[in-house]
């Protein structure tokens, strides 16, 4: 199949796009940092002289580690409860629904809610407990907010890993005389260890890249790298300094990414392959009732906290000024549907254009990478993943550097927003495609070829219909991200093309929290509807005759 | 109706080789200098243990793999470098490889659609071919609504509906249960004869190969060990490998004791047996004797040998009663021999531990050079 006349042009096309929209901007960013009429380290050295920047580096790393630990612990607790506690189906589904809320929310949701709930005049801290000295700003507030926002990533990862640990293995340990705690300690946990490491790195990476939460809750006392880079550019108009800060952020981000790849590739993410086929269904008994109760209490608390956050946001959107003037009012929504309507429309247009473009890109890339052979295949896979793996701030600033001037003056256009999302958020679709293709025997494609179909015909008539679930999953993720992203696109918006998330940020910085809440509620509702529709469609596709695309939000 | 026209083309492989390289290992020859020719309308089986190169050979004939050396031609046309989709073949996969998102009708119609046939012609042809494989009325079902045997039939229908010059089967029956396998075997045989398409059939099941094939090519370690009809391979194996792979066999070490008047006297146990065919042998040469289990007869311990026979004492060490026959394991001169006795109801069954005489008939003995 090597000399296929169709694969080569497709590879060239994808390579060209990746080179232009991934490698070129990153290259420009590095050149700006390290080239000043010649090779130069001045820009990085200057950072060392600034106290704020030095602290920002340390803060970023400490925060990432703490959020990683807390998020993984919470995620593990919730995953154990969901997979190993014999909960009823609907209970697991309800747990899923609540835990997934933060994943599909605009970035400031938890932060705004925490300000309302635990701020100086917070609903809980002041009005319930009468505390006046609670300070939500700084490390602890940022940590709490980011943990609530990102522990669902750990939950999803660990749930999949634990679900793949064959309960028969635990049974065989029981049969050898081990008690519950011993079985958990010597069988369940070791089997899940690669998953735990993976979850920790994923959550840490998310925290390292998070721009929205520290911008609001970090304040001046707790600077981190992404916010510093943003302020350096938007406040001081110092693009070179911002680029240098990006480089500082790039190093730990790539290290975490490399670590995550190492963990998942060395062990395949879990040990499932050892046992092969999962044996007969057996009732899981590795958690004692007391352990289940303990996990239930922890998860219950978290669930309540998440629900409180969303209740607060909703309340803030329908009263005049939450905490100060609690009279019902639709003024905030009136604003959203008048002055704010433009941003809503722009966001929807960009999101809707992203879906087919990014979805097709994801499927083609996934197909090329997992089903064809060509020189530089692994390199392409890696390059295509870069924009996803790097913090949005870096990608945004790189795009700003690369596409602000002719010949490619693209910033501020809808085009660049679409491009940014496609190359940043197609990875979920690509992975889903690879997962679906892994379940489809290559002989299906060979059968098509043996019946006289060329490679393009096979792709169109056999592969594409089979990867429809992956395409759908990929497009849904693109829609969610396009509705909720801020870190990269804040550098790319303009007066012509603005986004809802940017309006939320403006609302917060102008202290119009009610308006910000109303925008947030709107985004959450739109995204939730999209997820429900996609899930229903997915169920129909999966109920058909072919393989599952995995979870909608995986990856 | 699809006609048994002279659609079959001759397939020839000349010195075809294929090496695979695994990471960090030396290249392994999967197929090593294979030459064979399949006559128009003939069904040839590639038979061998797993890893013998039979499937790789088949995949090179189909065009899924490119040979590193050699030439493949169909009907005299060199197809060695031709893409799969231009070869005009029908391929039936081990796992059937039905398109899971298409109905039975669309699966079978796929090759016709690719060829751009008008809708009416497609409908007619698909209907005929489903009739042929015994699945009329299954048009609207999906593959996951079919049993294994039905999926198998759809796979065959899909392969033959395009009227291929060459039909290729890759262990098509290995996913079916034993009873269905025998039934499908007969149906495939009938279908292939009716359509008269040149066919190459890969299997590791010697019984299947013997039941289906016009000729069998036994493969071992990437090479063709022997080609012949089932009977030729069974009666006159040219190597110990073929002797052991086709049917059950006892190989007994021996040597040439004397050559007289076109006959060989060869050593067997403590005696000597006279067998025809002296050409190329020298006195003292080491040999293996091929003794099929059914040519060893169990007699009472006291039985005497007649002319051209040899009888030795043995002890029954094991037996398997299989209804129409009993398979014995008999210890003779310190070695265990397989012996099969038919019609046990009439002849009786010897118990384990019984002392018996084993009779070997010279006419049933074949000779092999000791190093083959």
Kindly describe this structure.
The complex is a heterodimer of chains A (555) and B (372). Chain A has 555 residues and is mainly α. Chain A has a domain at 41-329: MetI-like fold, CATH 1.10.3720. Helices cover 74% and strands 1% of the residues of chain A. Chain A contains 25 helices and two strands. In chain A, strands 1-2 form a two-stranded antiparallel sheet. In chain A, α1 (7-34) crosses α16 and α1 (7-34) packs across α18. Chain B is of the alpha+beta class. Chain B folds into two domains: 11-244, Rossmann fold (3-Layer(aba) Sandwich), CATH 3.40.50; 248-369, Beta Barrel (OB fold (Dihydrolipoamide Acetyltransferase, E2P)). Chain B contains nine helices and 20 strands. Chain B has a six-stranded mixed beta sheet, sandwiched between helices. In chain B, α2 packs across α3 (119-132), α2 runs parallel beside α4 (148-160) and α3 (119-132) packs across α4. Chains A and B meet through α21 and α22 of A and β6 and α2 of B.
Radius of gyration of chain A: 24 Å
* Secondary structure: helix percent of chain A: over 70%
CATH third-level topology of the domain at 41-329 in chain A = MetI-like fold
CATH class of the largest domain in chain B: Alpha Beta
Largest interface, and how many residues on either side?
Answer: A-B, 25 and 32 residues
Helix and strand composition category of chain A: mainly alpha
Kindly state the number of beta strands of chain B: 20
Strand order of the largest sheet of chain B: 6-7-8-3-9-10
- Low-pLDDT runs of chain B: 1-6
Helix % of chain B is 10-25%
Round the Cα radius of gyration of chain B to an integer and report it.
25 Å
Side-by-side strand order of the widest sheet of chain A: 1-2
The biggest sheet of chain A amounts to: 2 strands, antiparallel
Name the CATH class of the domain at 41-329 in chain A. Mainly Alpha
Q: Please identify the structural class of chain B as seen in this structure.
A: alpha+beta
Unreliable sequence segments of chain A: 268-281, 544-555
Number of domains of chain B: 2
């Amino acid at each position: 199949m090597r000399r296929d006349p169709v694969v080569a042009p497709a590879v060239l096309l994808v390579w060209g796009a990746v080179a232009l929209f991934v490698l070129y901007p990153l290259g420009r960013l590095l050149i700006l940092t390290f080239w000043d009429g010649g090779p130069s380290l001045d820009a990085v050295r200057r950072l060392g002289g600034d106290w704020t920047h030095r602290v920002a580096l340390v803060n970023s790393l400490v925060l990432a580690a703490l959020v990683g630990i807390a998020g993984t612990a919470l995620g593990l607790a919730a995953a154990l409860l969901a997979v190993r506690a014999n909960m009823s189906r609907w209970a697991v589904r309800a747990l899923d629904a609540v835990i997934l809320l933060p994943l599909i929310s605009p970035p400031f949701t938890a932060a705004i809610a925490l300000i309302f709930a635990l701020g100086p005049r917070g609903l809980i801290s002041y009005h319930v407990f009468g505390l006046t000295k609670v300070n939500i700003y700084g490390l602890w507030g940022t940590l709490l907010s980011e943990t609530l926002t990102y522990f669902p990533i750990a939950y999803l990862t660990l749930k999949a890993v634990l679900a793949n640990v064959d309960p028969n293995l635990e049974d065989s340990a029981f049969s050898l005389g081990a008690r519950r705690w011993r079985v958990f300690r010597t069988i369940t946990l070791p089997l899940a260890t690669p998953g735990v490491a993976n979850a920790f790195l994923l959550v840490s990476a998310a925290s390292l890249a998070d721009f929205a939460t520290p911008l609001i809750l970090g304040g001046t006392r707790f600077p981190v790298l992404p916010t510093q880079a943003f302020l350096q550019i938007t406040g001081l108009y110092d693009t070179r300094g911002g680029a240098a800060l990006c480089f500082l952020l790039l190093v730990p981000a790539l290290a975490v990414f490399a670590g995550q790849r190492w963990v998942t590739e060395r062990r395949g993410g879990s040990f499932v392959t050892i046992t092969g086929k999962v044996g007969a269904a057996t009732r899981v008994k590795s958690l004692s009732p007391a352990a289940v109760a303990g996990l239930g209490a922890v998860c219950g608390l978290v669930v309540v906290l998440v629900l409180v956050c969303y209740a607060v946001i909703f309340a803030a959107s329908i009263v005049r000024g939450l905490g100060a003037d609690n009279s019902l009012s639709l003024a905030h929504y009136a604003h959203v549907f008048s002055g704010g309507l433009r941003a809503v429309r722009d966001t929807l247009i960009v999101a809707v254009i992203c879906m087919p473009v990014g979805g097709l890109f994801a499927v083609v890339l996934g197909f090329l990478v997992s089903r064809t052979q060509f020189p530089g295949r692994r390199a392409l896979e890696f390059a295509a993943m870069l924009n996803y793996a790097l913090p949005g701030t870096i990608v945004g600033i790189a795009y700003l550097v690369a596409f602000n001037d002719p010949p490619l003056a693209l910033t501020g256009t809808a085009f660049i927003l679409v491009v940014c999302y496609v190359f940043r958020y197609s990875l979920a679709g690509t992975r889903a495609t690879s997962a679906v293709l892994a379940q489809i025997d290559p002989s299906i494609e060979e059968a098509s070829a043996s019946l006289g179909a060329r490679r393009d015909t096979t792709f169109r008539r056999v592969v594409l219909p089979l990867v429809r679930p992956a395409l759908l999953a990929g497009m849904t993720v693109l829609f969610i991200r396009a509705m909720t992203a801020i870190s990269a696109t804040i550098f790319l918006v303009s007066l012509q093309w603005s986004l809802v998330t940017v309006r939320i940020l403006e609302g917060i910085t102008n202290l119009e929290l009610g308006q910000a809440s109303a925008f947030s509620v709107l985004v959450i509702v739109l995204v939730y509807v999209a997820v429900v529709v996609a899930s229903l469609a997915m169920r129909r596709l999966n109920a058909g005759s072919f393989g599952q695309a995995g979870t909608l939000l995986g990856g | 109706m699809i006609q048994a026209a002279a659609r079959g083309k001759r397939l020839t492989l000349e010195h075809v080789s294929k090496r695979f390289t695994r990471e960090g290992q030396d290249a392994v020859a999967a197929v090593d200098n294979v030459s064979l020719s399949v006559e128009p309308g003939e069904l040839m089986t590639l038979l061998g243990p797993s890893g013998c190169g039979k499937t790789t050979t088949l995949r090179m004939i189909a065009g899924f793999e490119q040979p590193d050396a050699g030439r493949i031609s169909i009907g005299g046309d060199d197809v060695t470098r031709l893409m799969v989709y231009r070869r005009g073949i029908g391929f039936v996969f081990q796992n059937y490889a039905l398109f899971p998102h298409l109905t039975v009708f669309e699966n079978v119609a796929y090759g016709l659609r690719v060829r751009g046939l008008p809708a009416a012609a497609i409908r007619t042809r698909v209907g005929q071919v489903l009739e042929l494989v015994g699945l009329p009325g299954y048009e609207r079902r999906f593959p996951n609504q079919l049993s294994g045997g039905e999926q198998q039939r759809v796979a065959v229908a899909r392969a033959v509906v395009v009227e291929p010059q060459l039909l290729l089967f890759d262990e098509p029956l290995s996913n079916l249960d034993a009873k269905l396998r025998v039934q499908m075997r007969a149906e495939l045989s009938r279908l292939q004869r009716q359509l008269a398409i040149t066919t190459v059939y890969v299997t590791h099941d010697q019984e299947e190969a013997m039941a289906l094939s016009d000729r069998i090519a036994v493969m071992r370690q990437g090479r063709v060990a022997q080609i012949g009809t089932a009977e030729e391979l069974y009666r006159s194996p040219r190597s110990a490998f073929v002797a052991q792979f086709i049917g059950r066999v006892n190989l007994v070490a021996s040597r040439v004791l004397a050559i007289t008047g076109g006959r060989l006297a060869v050593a067997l146990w403590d005696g000597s047996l006279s067998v025809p065919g002296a050409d190329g042998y020298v006195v003292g040469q080491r040999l293996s004797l091929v003794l099929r289990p059914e040519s060893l007869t169990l007699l009472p311990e006291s039985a005497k040998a007649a002319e051209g026979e040899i009888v030795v004492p043995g002890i029954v060490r094991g037996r398997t009663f299989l209804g129409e026959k009993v398979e014995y394991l008999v210890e003779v001169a310190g070695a265990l021999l397989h012996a099969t006795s038919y019609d046990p109801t009439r002849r009786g069954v010897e118990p384990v531990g019984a002392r018996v005489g084993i009779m070997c008939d010279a006419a049933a003995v074949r000779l092999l050079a000791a190093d083959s």
